[in-house]
Amino acid sequence: MQTSHGSDRIRLVWYTDPHSVWCWGFEPALRRIETLYADRVDIDVRMGGLFEDFTPMREYWTRMSGGRWRESVSAFMGAVASQHRMPMNAEAIAAGADDFISTWPACIAAKAAEPQGKEAAARYLRGLREAFLIEGRSIHRREVQLEVAAERGLDTAAFSRALEDGSAEAAFRTDLAECRRESVQGFPTFVIHGTHSSVRIEGYQPWEAFEHVLGAVPSPPATPSSVISFVNRFARTATREVAAVFALPDDEAEIQLDELAATGAVVRRETGGGLFWESPAAARSYPSASGALRPGVSRQVPQD
Fold first, then answer.
1. Which fold has domain 224-285?
2. What's residue 276's pLDDT?
3. Which 8-state DSSP code applies to residue 171?
4. Distance (Å, rounded) from C-alpha 105 to C-alpha 278?
5. Phi, psi values for residue 16, rounded to 5°
6. Residue range 22-70, pLDDT digits in tens
7. Exposed / middle / buried, residue 166 (Cβ in 10 Å: 0-12, 13-18, 19+)
């Protein structure tokens, strides 16, 4: 495939939402595309607004569970995680959902990061996903959005201005209009544009589905230096992401990462029903004051 961006550039448009558990499952494929296809694929992100009003869904879960809607949420999250194999802290997510009404505030926050550049926006969106799905933080709240912006190295004053002056919301509504034009009704949805054709992929897919469209490329050898370099590049990564980039079984990726952790080259963190691996610098820099997990420290989840 080719695009008008250049003789061999492909444009992948990702329609997503920071709260989407299935979009979280796409992160391993995203890491593989960013690592192996950087010379040919441009990634554009659009916020889709999964739930303008979550109340009807909450009421449905409450009716179906006899009032124990948190247990329904936890069961759903656990079922999703078992399919895409990315860690998710189902109990923490359910515990922090009492005042959750809409995914739109988090979508607007993601747009507020975009004026600081694509790299900063991607870093911030990833931060929102981790804050919600791993740490159970309420990313619909403005104070949490600002905390994540600071944690991910954004200019927090510029970020706040974009939220306050309406520009972030306007950008989000532009994305919503594009979703309507493209008939995007579920997340994730991907449209991959070449010069002469476009391919649409709907719903969660493993990385192999994208390789079929983008063209096969050899996976890098999983040497200690290459794995360390990958972890350092992204600062914090799940076992499944390492496995996807290096085309390894999850168990083999975990063994190699454990060996590196034993030498201090990476830091092992158990959380969200799975494992994350961090560069030593990132492990030291994740703040504990905001609730972000630190090695050896767990957050207490309120009980019903």
1. Arc Repressor Mutant, subunit A (1.10.10)
2. 94
3. H
4. 29
5. -145, 180
6. 999 999 999 999 999 999 999 999 999 999 998 887 787 778 777 777 7
7. exposed
